[in-house]
């Protein structure tokens, strides 16, 4: 009988952090963690010019076990030179995410030729020549460029520029499989696709909604801010089908009282059905409408579209809202009252809202609630998508997207003296689909595990192996290099953020741009800077006119271009001399005037999603020992899940299925099955089950939100077979 922990953080986190540091030498780790480099893990944002382990408000120490996991993993030693000789492709295909991660840093380029059984080391010059040849012999409309959220703004800007000058808009980033719905919805409602608040606003609110997110595991330093909200008498409403230990109680390591006695985080814990968010949020609107407590003057003075949104809430029956959400009327009324009483509310969310075929409507429903209560466009109130990777927002901001704003396009044409391509750029899912039809001859991937983040892994495997030449720029190995290989595959070793020879920049989820100094390589090897590799390949493919790519190897030159081309980023041009990190302009709203056509916010009707009745609804999760697709620990310490092949289930559902805790079952999804899965009883909403991604993605078909193109990783139908 496995049990989830009673709390998050605390001494277990401290002891884990120390044990990690001891793996590679505490002094080495200390020097790296205190270097002026932005944290390599999540987008809360630590480090940079204010100093290592310092947050945007200048507070020290700000560090967490997730940050340590990533740093130590980069320092653990290089892959031996005979590794690929000893391990053929079949052996590499057996590696789990953790085993691939634990192989260490890739210190030399490798290639897998068509039909070969082994990757083999290759000289950099030969590797670059093969990549250049593949691009030169491809039609730009058959070439795709992908980026994870780990790379720098400079590398991302260079690669999207190269793609466009080369002639294609097939430029997509990992957001399509995570926060794209947030960007789409926020832009529809407020004309800007990112957080509307700063980190400091979390010190001025008295109510926080945490919707479909578990910051205790994925953004641990946010827990200090949340504990402070409770300490000053504020409330926190957690909306999550799963009761997460760290959201019930968290022991903040940097606060003595909380470290020893813990801090209650959730004042209210709502467990809706997975995919029942719109029902719940429209329910809150209906409760306020019936109580006459909506902020009518705010809607009248600063927003449009209220009539149709209120009409929807009025006309939708309580039965439908309660059944669809799985939340009682009493709970809905209680939370609506709390919201109305609040002086300033912040709505924060993550994949639990965006990983649905109705992801955009989920986020629009949150925007409607913020507008209907006047909780946007002032200090202490607003909207906060909790972003994953440390620079996922920056990569989007600097133009690593299939379509560019008209102004950015014209500025790039002026800067490069070349017309930008006109082909309709593919999103990530569409690109894999095109690969399956044989329409992608070359894929250039900047970091990440694109394969693993796909739904329907069997489909992704077949599609990606259809690609002629696939190039990965990576720091370490992951299963995507092997399952997501092309007919010819190159893995080129690059430097990590704190190893860069030049300073780089990253943007946090609070629109704050940091400057990272770089530093010495953590391990010996032939790793190169991403920007150097991109410029070398661009020169080999396109020559040095009209763009002199070798000049753009200088990050200062790249930053001058970003300042010219990307709205709100002027200050980056001088950051080398000023060392002044800045907030991107036009993103934070402390007054109710928004960058829409008429400066007013816009409310949107949000249709109620429909679900197949007899299936359980699967939510795929990151474990406590994981960050995105990178697995550092096989077990999930917080949830009491001992390994990766578990399914968390409510006892009520288990009784109906006549299965026991610890019993092995087969889980069948719309796209595949997984056998020998261990049932773990947990405090999860009956009707909902949870498994870890990327492994469970094999079950999920490609049902995507038509506006965000994000697959429904959090409400996929599954059936249990004993
Ligand atoms: S909360 Fe995020 S940004 Fe801060 S130290 Fe942890 S992983 Fe890094």
Question: What is the topology?
Answer:
Layout: E1 8-9, H1 10-24, H2 26-33, H3 65-73, H4 83-86, H5 89-93, H6 97-101, E2 110-112, E3 120-121, H7 124-136, E4 143-147, H8 153-166, E5 171-173, H9 180-190, E6 207-211, H10 215-218, H11 222-231, E7 235-239, H12 245-248, E8 249-251, H13 256-261, E9 263-264, E10 268-270, H14 277-291, H15 296-302, E11 303-304, H16 306-315, H17 318-325, H18 329-341, E12 345-349, H19 351-354, H20 359-372, E13 382-385, H21 392-397, H22 406-416, H23 428-436, E14 442-446, H24 457-464, E15 469-474, H25 480-483, E16 488-493, E17 504-507, E18 512-516, H26 530-542, H27 555-565, H28 575-578, E19 582-583, E20 601-602, E21 616-621, E22 626-627, E23 630-631, E24 646-649, H29 651-657, E25 664-669, E26 673-681, E27 688-692, E28 716-721
Parallel strand pairs: 1-8, 4-5, 4-14, 6-7, 6-12, 7-10, 11-20, 12-13, 14-15, 15-16, 21-27, 24-26
Antiparallel strand pairs: 2-3, 2-16, 8-9, 17-18, 18-19, 21-28, 22-23, 25-26, 25-28
Helix pairs in contact: 1-2, 1-3, 7-26, 8-26, 9-20, 14-16, 14-17, 14-18, 14-20, 23-24
The structure holds iron/sulfur cluster.
